C-alpha cells in the first residue's frame, strides 16, 4: 500500500555560515520533547493547511506550530516557500505572548530566505 504524500516538504533554515539554528535547538532538547515536536511538525506536513490549536498564523507569511510540553510551551515558527515549510525559529515560550526578540529573529530569517531567491 502506498504511503500518503506530504502536502508540504519540511526544511530547516540555513544561515550563511551553514548553521541550522532550529536543528541545533531541537538537538539540545530532551528526547521526549524532540519526539513531541516532530509529531506536531508531521501533523502540519501531512495535514496542511492546519488551523488552531496546532497552527496559528502570524504576520508576514509566518506561522507558529504550538506545542505544550511537560510544564513548558514551545513554538516552532515557519514560513512556506514553494510547498516547503522552512523552520526558521524554535524556542520555549516564557510568557503569554511571543517575545519581540523571538518574533524579530523569525522575521529576519524569513526575509533573508526571500532575499536569497528560490529555496
Q: How many separate domains make up the residues? A: 1
In angstroms, what separates the terminal alpha carbons? 32 Å
Order of helices and strands: EHHEEEEH
CATH T-level fold name: YaeB-like fold
* Second rung of CATH, namely the architecture: 2-Layer Sandwich
Percent range of helical residues: 25-40%
Strand composition percent? 25-35%
Q: Over all CA atoms, what is the radius of gyration?
A: 14 Å
Classification by helices and strands: alpha+beta
- Our count of helices gives 3
Low-confidence stretches: none
Number of strands: 5
Q: Please, what is the average pLDDT?
A: 94
Q: CATH homologous superfamily?
A: RelE-like
Shape: globular
The major beta sheet can be summarized as:
5 strands, mixed
The level 1 CATH classification is Alpha Beta
Strand line-up across the major sheet? 1-5-4-3-2
Amino acid at each position: 500500500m502506498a504511503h500518503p504524500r506530504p502536502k508540504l516538504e519540511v526544511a530547516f533554515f540555513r544561515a550563511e555560515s551553514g548553521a541550522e539554528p532550529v536543528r541545533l535547538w531541537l538537538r539540545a532538547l530532551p528526547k521526549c520533547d524532540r519526539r513531541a515536536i516532530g509529531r506536531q511538525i508531521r501533523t502540519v506536513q501531512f495535514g496542511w493547511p492546519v488551523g488552531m490549536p496546532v497552527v496559528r498564523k502570524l504576520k508576514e507569511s509566518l506561522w507558529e506550530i504550538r506545542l505544550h510540553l511537560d510544564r513548558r510551551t514551545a513554538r516552532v515558527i515557519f514560513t512556506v516557500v514553494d510547498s516547503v515549510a522552512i523552520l526558521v525559529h524554535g524556542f520555549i515560550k516564557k510568557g503569554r505572548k511571543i517575545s519581540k526578540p523571538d518574533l524579530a529573529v523569525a522575521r529576519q530569517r524569513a526575509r533573508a530566505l526571500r532575499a536569497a531567491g528560490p529555496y
